[in-house]
## 1
Amino acid sequence: MLPIALIAILVSILQFTAVGFARIGPHTFNLQIITLVFFSLRYGLRAGLALGLFFGVFNGLVGAAPVFTNIVTYLLIGSITGYIGRWFYKESLMAFLFLVLCSLAAIYFINIPASFFRLFMPAAIYNLAISAFLFFFLRELKV
């Protein structure tokens, strides 16, 4: 579990520093959601809960949304993905992209409900394009 923790720390630091430079308009990709879904799908409920708690606390401390909202949102995403991940083939790109899309919908709906429809689709397309490449990269890490 230690390499996953190191990856989570690195991803969190990158999310709030370098990812801002890869912005298209107001949209940027969410490395934390992509990582959370990947490891929750691959390693199950425990990894989903641990990573969800870590990303939720980190986003709550650094991000703009309230701490409790971030913790609950990321915990739910990690636990639901980890729980239903046992019914999916772990190496399936389509299952991974579907779960990333559902997770992004939850994040956008909870954090920005007033502009959900205007902001969600462009951000989802951008995130799914990046997710497809990161899926193969993370899979080759053999963590």
## 2
Amino acid sequence: MTNVHKWLKPAPQSFAEWFKNNPAPDLLALAKHYGGLGNVPSGVMDTFEAERAEWELRRKSRHLDPETESSSEPPYHEESEPGADIPTEIMAKIEANCRRRCLKKEK
């Protein structure tokens, strides 16, 4: 095996590529299997929720590098935040709509 430097890291995966290799637990498939969400046994639902929470944790931390000796905080990666892949112009429209709704509620 060749000697690999610590600083040499593979290029990060896109979210679509990561998601293809790590699909989320499917609530719809679970509900269809039991004939409706109300028919899912509580033990099975608890297992599903635990798997979903574990998947969410992996999704949110998929770009975080392991801690280095010189840093006590993990680096921040914008892609690990939900909604980070929303284009800027669409995000501006969403925020404008939210502000309009908040102003209507205050009146």
## 3
Amino acid sequence: MVHALSLWLLAAAFLGAGIVNAIGAAGTRDDFVKWGYPRWWGILTGALEISTAALFALPAARIAGIALGTAITAAAILTVLRHRDYRHLPPLGVFVGLIAVVVVSA
């Protein structure tokens, strides 16, 4: 039960983050540029996050989804730490926590 609930919460979180990044509001685009990425980087990130959510929905692809989601989250954490933009750490901590619960409860 915990595994299924945390898996679907994680899928919803990646889907939501993916939509926000893919839509690319001005503030989101500005953050990517501030971190040294091109303006279109949010669209790529959003597509990867939406793909991660889709992989969670397919039982045969969940391990790939966890791997991709972990890589995306790790890259985001490294970017935020490198640029000392700590206000983005709390949401990333939620992703780390949900990933940990999914992996441990499997």
